[in-house]
Amino acid sequence: MYRITMKFNKFKRRLLVFLSVVLTAFFLASCTGPGKAPNPEKAEEETVVYMGRGLPVSKLSDETLEWLERFNQMPEEAQLAIDYVPHDICSLINEGSESPEALETTDAP
User: Fold this and answer.
1) DSSP code at position 104
2) pLDDT (tens digit per residue) in 41-81
3) Residue pair 100/89 in contact by the 8 Å Cβ criterion
4) By C-alpha distance, which of 38, 57, 41, 59 is closest to 49?
5) What is the pTM of this model?
6) 107 near 80, Cβ under 8 Å?
7) Which first-to-last residue range defines the signal peptide (predicted)?
């Protein structure tokens, strides 16, 4: 009788372990299903800042990146005095809006 009880207990333990593994696998699969998994490309995409907005580096030309680096090193008064904005930046800022708006710049005092 003791052997039968031991075998049954061993079987119960294995069954419980198997069921817990299966349930854990289903839970993890439901948490990271389609559309919920993080996109590694978007997470690692570099951005640069222009007037408080983050712009993706991949969508800017090398010339624009150089211009932006110099622009961001200027004091705020000098930045406001600049009346030229590269086309790359304007198109990214206006992207997604129904009507393209002119990028507003103000003159320095």
Assistant:
1) P
2) 555 678 999 988 889 999 999 999 999 999 999 999 999 99
3) no
4) 57
5) 0.49
6) yes
7) 1-29
Amino acid at 67: W
pLDDT tens, 1-11?
556 656 667 77
Token digits of residue 6: 């031991």
Query: How far, in Å, CA of 50 to CA of 44, rounded?
Result: 19
Place of tokens 């069954």: 15
Tokens at 78, concatenated: 């000098």
Place of tokens 């559309």: 35
- For the cut 80, the answer to whether the pLDDT of residue 108 exceeds it is no
CA-nearest of 63, 64, 59 to 46 is: 59
Please tell me whether residue 47 adopts helix, strand or coil conformation.
strand
